[in-house]
Amino acid sequence: MRSNGAEPQIVFSENKDEKRAKPIAIAHLDESDLGGPVLLIADAANKLWMYSRVDGLRTVSFAAPANLAISDITVNGPDLFVLDAGQSTIYRYLQTPQGFPNAPLAALKNSDLGNARRLMVDGEFITTDADGTVHRFIAGGQTAITFSQAGIDRKLVAPEAVQAMTDRSEVAILDASNDRIVVLRRDGGFARQYRHKDFDGASAFVIRKGDALIFSGGQLRRVIF
Questions:
Q1: pLDDT tens, position by position, 62-112
Q2: Cβ atoms of 120 and 162 closer than 8 Å
Q3: 35 sits in which H/E element
Q4: CA–CA distance, 103 with 94 (Å, rounded to integer)
Q5: Pseudo-torsion of CA 209, 215, 220, 225, nearest 10°?
Q6: Which residue of 54, 87, 90, 114 has the lowest C-beta tally within 10 Å?
Q7: Rounded CA gap, 204 and 130, in Å?
């Protein structure tokens, strides 16, 4: 069913007159000093935007390093993490009441980030690549474990961002090309997978506060594992 029975609403689109470039990545920031929970949107011009139902769409202070090319963004607590695969770097921004105006910290530099397209941070860094590879970075991020996906019937194809499960030993990933949600153990092995006719054409999947939500067929659905 649609979320709250509501019709979809466009909150951001490319607009040269309003200096909005093509959207690159989004992240939902719960722990916010920016006027409550907000949706963060990074665009191709390295501008950061926020959207809330109360304030609508507005820009957020964001100190982009020289030559930054945003691949993905995510949050962990109040902090923003930016993946720049081209520079094999993950940046960490500390939040202030103005947004993220201060120069970031290089949270991780590793050559295994070079092909990453999606990022998850929850005390560890886990990335997914376009070819289906999943990396978990440990030992301060300097050691990368490649998930073997041992036991799975078909390897992941262009997986979306990893989602942390309530059981911290597992993670879930939307594999939209195969119309499924795959659960992997953090040691890299395959745990199980879920398929359903309503997963066809899924374009987004998230687990927030224990609730798993998938967007497919123009509808937001709750997944009960």
A1: 999 999 999 999 999 999 999 999 999 999 999 999 999 999 999 999 999
A2: yes
A3: none
A4: 9
A5: -50
A6: 54
A7: 16
Please, are residues 165 and 183 in contact by the beta-carbon 8 Å criterion? yes
pTM (2 decimals)? 0.91
Q: Measure the CA–CA gap between 5 and 58, rounded to whole angstroms.
A: 26
Tokens standing for residue 73: 């963004």
Q: In Å, what is the CA distance from 214 to each residue of 4, 93, 198? A: 14, 28, 9
Phi, psi at 3, each rounded to 5°: -60, 120
Please state, in angstroms and rounded to a whole number, the distance separating the CA atoms of residues 177 and 94: 35
> How far apart, in whole angstroms, are the C-alpha atoms of residue 86 and residue 71?
8
Pairing of strands 56-62, 99-100: parallel
CB-CB contact of 81 with 120 (8 Å): no
Q: Which one, of 168, 164, 154, 110, lies nearest residue 135 by Cα?
A: 110
What does the pLDDT look like over 205-223, one tens digit per residue? 999 888 899 998 888 889 8
